[in-house]
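quick one, 299 residues, struct below
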Amino acid sequence: MIYDIRQTTTYAYASKVAYAHHALHLTPVNRPRQRVHAVALEISPVPVERRDSVDFFGNHVTRIGLEEAHDSLSIKVVARVAVEAPPHPDPDATPAWEAVRADAVMGSYLGPDSPAHFLFPSRQVFLDPAITDYARQSFAPGRPVFAGAADLMNRIKADFTYEIGSTDVATSPSQAFAQRSGVCQDFAHIMIAGLRGLGLPAAYVSGYLRTVPREGQARLEGSDAMHAWTMAWCGPEAGWCGFDPTNALLVGDDHVFLALGRDYADVAPIAGIFFASGGQHLEVAVDVIPVDPAAARTV
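---
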Protein backbone atom coordinates (compact mmCIF):
# COMPACT_ATOMS: atom_id res chain seq x y z
CA MET A 1 0.00 0.00 0.00
CA ILE A 2 1.31 3.46 -0.95
CA TYR A 3 0.19 6.59 0.90
CA ASP A 4 0.53 10.30 0.44
CA ILE A 5 0.89 11.86 3.90
CA ARG A 6 0.27 15.50 4.70
CA GLN A 7 0.53 16.85 8.21
CA THR A 8 0.32 20.48 9.28
CA THR A 9 1.14 21.42 12.86
CA THR A 10 0.49 25.01 13.91
CA TYR A 11 1.25 26.73 17.21
CA ALA A 12 -0.28 30.13 17.97
CA TYR A 13 1.33 31.96 20.91
CA ALA A 14 -0.28 34.56 23.19
CA SER A 15 2.82 36.75 22.89
CA LYS A 16 5.90 37.01 20.73
CA VAL A 17 8.39 34.16 21.17
CA ALA A 18 11.91 35.60 21.34
CA TYR A 19 13.82 32.32 21.06
CA ALA A 20 12.95 28.65 20.64
CA HIS A 21 14.71 25.34 20.24
CA HIS A 22 12.81 22.21 19.24
CA ALA A 23 13.46 18.55 18.47
CA LEU A 24 11.10 17.11 15.85
CA HIS A 25 10.18 13.46 15.27
CA LEU A 26 8.14 14.09 12.14
CA THR A 27 10.10 12.49 9.31
CA PRO A 28 9.37 8.84 8.43
CA VAL A 29 12.34 6.61 7.64
CA ASN A 30 12.89 3.33 5.85
CA ARG A 31 12.21 0.33 8.05
CA PRO A 32 11.45 -3.32 7.42
CA ARG A 33 8.33 -3.43 5.20
CA GLN A 34 8.25 0.34 4.86
CA ARG A 35 9.97 2.47 2.24
CA VAL A 36 9.95 6.26 2.02
CA HIS A 37 9.70 7.37 -1.62
CA ALA A 38 9.87 11.11 -0.89
CA VAL A 39 9.62 13.43 2.10
CA ALA A 40 9.81 17.17 2.73
CA LEU A 41 9.69 19.18 5.96
CA GLU A 42 8.79 22.88 5.75
CA ILE A 43 9.15 25.13 8.81
CA SER A 44 7.95 28.73 9.19
CA PRO A 45 9.55 30.94 10.34
CA VAL A 46 12.70 29.52 8.78
CA PRO A 47 15.11 28.30 11.50
CA VAL A 48 18.52 29.92 11.81
CA GLU A 49 19.81 26.52 12.85
CA ARG A 50 18.75 23.09 11.61
CA ARG A 51 20.43 19.77 12.21
CA ASP A 52 19.18 16.36 11.08
CA SER A 53 20.33 13.13 12.69
CA VAL A 54 19.28 9.56 13.50
CA ASP A 55 18.86 8.54 17.13
CA PHE A 56 19.75 5.24 18.81
CA PHE A 57 16.46 3.60 17.83
CA GLY A 58 16.80 4.62 14.17
CA ASN A 59 14.37 7.55 14.28
CA HIS A 60 14.96 10.69 12.21
CA VAL A 61 15.36 13.74 14.47
CA THR A 62 15.37 17.34 13.23
CA ARG A 63 16.67 19.91 15.71
CA ILE A 64 15.87 23.55 14.97
CA GLY A 65 16.70 26.90 16.53
CA LEU A 66 14.53 30.00 16.02
CA GLU A 67 15.85 33.46 16.88
CA GLU A 68 13.39 35.58 14.93
CA ALA A 69 10.52 36.88 17.09
CA HIS A 70 7.36 35.05 16.10
CA ASP A 71 3.80 34.60 17.35
CA SER A 72 3.15 31.38 15.42
CA LEU A 73 5.05 28.30 14.29
CA SER A 74 4.01 26.18 11.33
CA ILE A 75 5.51 22.78 10.49
CA LYS A 76 4.38 20.96 7.37
CA VAL A 77 5.29 17.39 6.43
CA VAL A 78 4.65 15.93 3.00
CA ALA A 79 5.67 12.35 2.30
CA ARG A 80 4.98 9.37 0.07
CA VAL A 81 5.46 6.06 1.86
CA ALA A 82 4.98 2.45 0.78
CA VAL A 83 3.88 0.02 3.48
CA GLU A 84 3.72 -3.77 3.32
CA ALA A 85 1.66 -5.66 5.87
CA PRO A 86 3.83 -7.89 8.09
CA PRO A 87 3.09 -11.59 8.36
CA HIS A 88 1.57 -12.35 11.73
CA PRO A 89 2.59 -15.56 13.47
CA ASP A 90 0.14 -18.27 14.41
CA PRO A 91 -0.80 -17.02 17.90
CA ASP A 92 -0.78 -20.51 19.38
CA ALA A 93 2.59 -21.35 17.83
CA THR A 94 4.50 -18.61 19.66
CA PRO A 95 6.34 -19.55 22.88
CA ALA A 96 4.72 -19.47 26.29
CA TRP A 97 4.94 -15.99 27.73
CA GLU A 98 7.07 -17.20 30.65
CA ALA A 99 9.69 -18.48 28.18
CA VAL A 100 9.71 -15.14 26.36
CA ARG A 101 10.16 -13.34 29.67
CA ALA A 102 13.17 -15.54 30.47
CA ASP A 103 14.69 -15.04 27.00
CA ALA A 104 14.35 -11.27 27.28
CA VAL A 105 16.18 -11.15 30.60
CA MET A 106 18.94 -13.55 29.62
CA GLY A 107 19.74 -12.14 26.16
CA SER A 108 23.17 -10.56 25.62
CA TYR A 109 22.35 -8.58 22.46
CA LEU A 110 22.06 -4.81 23.13
CA GLY A 111 21.41 -3.38 19.67
CA PRO A 112 18.60 -0.86 19.05
CA ASP A 113 15.96 -3.58 18.67
CA SER A 114 17.06 -5.55 21.72
CA PRO A 115 14.17 -6.41 24.05
CA ALA A 116 16.40 -5.39 26.97
CA HIS A 117 15.73 -1.70 26.27
CA PHE A 118 11.97 -2.14 26.65
CA LEU A 119 11.70 -4.17 29.85
CA PHE A 120 11.91 -1.51 32.51
CA PRO A 121 10.07 1.64 33.63
CA SER A 122 10.67 4.70 31.45
CA ARG A 123 9.93 8.42 31.74
CA GLN A 124 6.21 8.14 31.09
CA VAL A 125 5.55 4.45 31.77
CA PHE A 126 6.14 3.17 35.28
CA LEU A 127 4.97 -0.11 36.73
CA ASP A 128 1.55 -0.01 38.39
CA PRO A 129 0.34 -3.09 40.32
CA ALA A 130 -3.26 -2.45 39.23
CA ILE A 131 -2.31 -2.40 35.55
CA THR A 132 -0.10 -5.47 36.00
CA ASP A 133 -2.99 -7.36 37.60
CA TYR A 134 -5.25 -6.29 34.73
CA ALA A 135 -2.73 -7.56 32.15
CA ARG A 136 -2.19 -10.82 34.05
CA GLN A 137 -5.78 -11.84 33.28
CA SER A 138 -4.70 -12.28 29.64
CA PHE A 139 -1.68 -14.42 30.49
CA ALA A 140 -2.69 -17.69 32.08
CA PRO A 141 0.23 -20.01 32.87
CA GLY A 142 1.73 -21.37 29.67
CA ARG A 143 -0.34 -19.23 27.32
CA PRO A 144 1.41 -18.37 24.01
CA VAL A 145 2.73 -14.83 24.21
CA PHE A 146 1.14 -13.56 20.99
CA ALA A 147 -2.26 -14.87 22.02
CA GLY A 148 -1.94 -13.20 25.42
CA ALA A 149 -0.91 -9.85 23.91
CA ALA A 150 -3.77 -9.96 21.40
CA ASP A 151 -6.23 -10.71 24.21
CA LEU A 152 -4.90 -7.79 26.25
CA MET A 153 -5.25 -5.51 23.22
CA ASN A 154 -8.86 -6.59 22.69
CA ARG A 155 -9.74 -6.11 26.37
CA ILE A 156 -8.35 -2.56 26.39
CA LYS A 157 -10.51 -1.73 23.37
CA ALA A 158 -13.57 -3.22 25.08
CA ASP A 159 -13.00 -1.78 28.57
CA PHE A 160 -11.84 1.77 27.76
CA THR A 161 -13.55 4.71 26.07
CA TYR A 162 -11.81 6.67 23.33
CA GLU A 163 -12.47 10.26 24.41
CA ILE A 164 -10.54 13.19 22.99
CA GLY A 165 -9.83 15.79 25.67
CA SER A 166 -10.13 13.42 28.62
CA THR A 167 -6.32 13.28 28.91
CA ASP A 168 -3.27 15.20 27.70
CA VAL A 169 0.31 14.31 26.79
CA ALA A 170 1.35 14.39 30.47
CA THR A 171 -1.37 11.99 31.67
CA SER A 172 0.15 8.92 33.29
CA PRO A 173 -0.93 5.37 32.44
CA SER A 174 -2.27 5.04 35.99
CA GLN A 175 -4.53 8.08 35.58
CA ALA A 176 -5.92 6.90 32.26
CA PHE A 177 -6.35 3.38 33.62
CA ALA A 178 -8.27 4.64 36.66
CA GLN A 179 -10.70 6.72 34.62
CA ARG A 180 -11.02 4.06 31.88
CA SER A 181 -10.77 6.64 29.11
CA GLY A 182 -8.18 8.37 26.98
CA VAL A 183 -6.74 8.43 23.48
CA CYS A 184 -4.30 6.28 21.54
CA GLN A 185 -1.25 7.44 23.52
CA ASP A 186 -2.92 6.41 26.78
CA PHE A 187 -4.02 3.00 25.52
CA ALA A 188 -0.55 2.25 24.14
CA HIS A 189 1.01 3.29 27.47
CA ILE A 190 -1.43 1.13 29.46
CA MET A 191 -0.65 -1.91 27.30
CA ILE A 192 3.08 -1.26 27.63
CA ALA A 193 2.82 -0.88 31.41
CA GLY A 194 0.86 -4.13 31.67
CA LEU A 195 3.30 -6.12 29.56
CA ARG A 196 6.38 -4.75 31.30
CA GLY A 197 4.76 -5.44 34.67
CA LEU A 198 4.77 -9.11 33.65
CA GLY A 199 8.40 -8.93 32.49
CA LEU A 200 7.56 -8.77 28.77
CA PRO A 201 9.30 -6.23 26.50
CA ALA A 202 7.03 -3.59 24.98
CA ALA A 203 7.77 -0.50 22.87
CA TYR A 204 5.84 2.64 21.91
CA VAL A 205 5.31 3.54 18.26
CA SER A 206 4.08 6.84 16.85
CA GLY A 207 2.73 7.00 13.34
CA TYR A 208 -0.33 7.41 11.19
CA LEU A 209 -3.49 5.55 10.16
CA ARG A 210 -5.04 5.70 6.72
CA THR A 211 -7.61 8.51 6.66
CA VAL A 212 -10.09 6.90 4.25
CA PRO A 213 -11.41 3.56 5.55
CA ARG A 214 -11.40 0.47 3.37
CA GLU A 215 -14.62 -0.23 1.53
CA GLY A 216 -17.26 -1.56 3.89
CA GLN A 217 -15.21 -0.85 7.01
CA ALA A 218 -15.67 1.75 9.73
CA ARG A 219 -13.29 4.69 10.08
CA LEU A 220 -10.48 3.82 12.46
CA GLU A 221 -10.14 5.73 15.74
CA GLY A 222 -7.23 8.15 15.55
CA SER A 223 -7.17 8.36 11.76
CA ASP A 224 -7.53 12.16 11.70
CA ALA A 225 -4.43 12.82 13.81
CA MET A 226 -1.13 11.22 14.71
CA HIS A 227 -1.60 7.74 16.10
CA ALA A 228 0.20 5.45 18.56
CA TRP A 229 0.35 1.72 19.17
CA THR A 230 2.38 -0.95 20.95
CA MET A 231 5.06 -3.33 19.77
CA ALA A 232 5.45 -6.48 21.87
CA TRP A 233 8.46 -8.79 21.63
CA CYS A 234 7.10 -12.28 21.03
CA GLY A 235 10.32 -14.29 21.21
CA PRO A 236 13.42 -14.75 19.02
CA GLU A 237 11.53 -16.23 16.05
CA ALA A 238 8.40 -14.05 15.91
CA GLY A 239 10.32 -10.94 17.01
CA TRP A 240 8.50 -7.63 17.40
CA CYS A 241 4.76 -7.66 16.64
CA GLY A 242 2.46 -4.64 16.43
CA PHE A 243 -0.78 -4.31 18.41
CA ASP A 244 -3.16 -1.34 18.15
CA PRO A 245 -5.27 -1.33 21.35
CA THR A 246 -7.22 1.77 20.27
CA ASN A 247 -8.79 -0.21 17.42
CA ALA A 248 -8.22 -3.82 18.60
CA LEU A 249 -6.27 -4.31 15.38
CA LEU A 250 -3.05 -6.12 14.55
CA VAL A 251 -0.74 -3.61 12.90
CA GLY A 252 -0.78 -4.01 9.13
CA ASP A 253 -0.66 -1.84 6.02
CA ASP A 254 -3.21 0.60 7.47
CA HIS A 255 -0.43 1.81 9.78
CA VAL A 256 2.48 4.04 8.76
CA PHE A 257 5.46 3.84 11.10
CA LEU A 258 7.03 7.16 12.14
CA ALA A 259 9.15 6.65 15.28
CA LEU A 260 9.77 4.07 18.01
CA GLY A 261 10.82 4.50 21.63
CA ARG A 262 10.25 3.38 25.18
CA ASP A 263 7.26 5.73 25.54
CA TYR A 264 5.85 8.99 24.16
CA ALA A 265 8.66 11.06 25.67
CA ASP A 266 11.20 9.34 23.40
CA VAL A 267 9.28 10.15 20.21
CA ALA A 268 7.25 13.30 20.92
CA PRO A 269 6.47 14.91 17.54
CA ILE A 270 7.64 18.31 18.81
CA ALA A 271 9.58 18.87 22.02
CA GLY A 272 11.81 21.65 23.29
CA ILE A 273 11.77 25.10 24.86
CA PHE A 274 10.65 28.61 23.94
CA PHE A 275 10.88 31.97 25.72
CA ALA A 276 7.60 33.89 25.91
CA SER A 277 4.78 34.79 28.25
CA GLY A 278 1.21 33.53 28.11
CA GLY A 279 -0.19 30.34 26.66
CA GLN A 280 -0.25 28.62 23.30
CA HIS A 281 -2.82 27.01 21.04
CA LEU A 282 -2.04 23.88 19.00
CA GLU A 283 -3.77 22.63 15.87
CA VAL A 284 -2.82 19.46 13.96
CA ALA A 285 -4.28 18.32 10.64
CA VAL A 286 -3.38 14.93 9.15
CA ASP A 287 -4.31 13.24 5.87
CA VAL A 288 -3.07 9.77 4.90
CA ILE A 289 -4.46 9.01 1.47
CA PRO A 290 -3.94 5.77 -0.51
CA VAL A 291 -2.26 6.36 -3.87
CA ASP A 292 -3.19 4.66 -7.12
CA PRO A 293 -0.24 2.37 -7.99
CA ALA A 294 -0.08 3.73 -11.55
CA ALA A 295 0.29 7.28 -10.23
CA ALA A 296 2.91 6.16 -7.71
CA ARG A 297 5.15 4.86 -10.50
CA THR A 298 5.54 8.38 -11.84
CA VAL A 299 7.34 9.56 -8.69
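Residues 91-266 form a domain with the C8orf32 fold fold (CATH 3.10.620.30).
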